[in-house]
Amino acid sequence: DAKTTQPNSMESNEEEPVHLPCNHSTISGTDYIHWYRQLPSQGPEYVIHGLTSNVNNRMASLAIAEDRKSSTLILHRATLRDAAVYYCILRDRRTSGSRLTFGEGTQLTVNP
Amino acid sequence: DSGVTQTPKHLITATGQRVTLRCSPRSGDLSVYWYQQSLDQGLQFLIQYYNGEERAKGNILERFSAQQFPDLHSELNLSSLELGDSALYFCASSQGAGATDTQYFGPGTRLTVL
Question: Could you read off the pLDDT of A19-37 as tens digits, one per residue?
Fold first, then answer.
């Protein structure tokens, strides 16, 4: 499985944008880039996913580098509720069975 | 609320015992996944079922087994429990079994083995 690398922790201030980076230099052409997050004492929740083009949804934006070897999750205005561990995960569309392989993720702290 | 329910919320038991964790997926979802989250191993995929059949297996111990019933709910059975089995067990569900299918996670069952 292609691996991802994320910073262990990041800090931001409330109502400011947050850019969470993810490196995936061994990504294959059939890997989707997914982001999930885990709020304290909860199960993980889906944030966003993409293949080649940048994606936006009501929660966040995903910016994918042209060579696809890195991506950035963008929270446009962080709130205290966004404090969580953010996981960048690659999922191969060729694979039957679609497990999520979680790394250590990035612990995001949001300061009031 | 993800729509995935798990029971019980907490479970305390002794070494050597056997427990069953239950998961009800979101209405309409055919896939059920089980994950284990411990302090030293992080979140690890255990097993996936799709429409009653085993689809993929991860780091699931032989002492653990699972099944998905005709009504699509799933059970994870853990036997001969050891201290190291203490962890949070999450169930997730998705509509299909593809790489773009979003997984919706339940609130988890916290298992403590004494």
Answer: 999 999 999 998 999 999 9
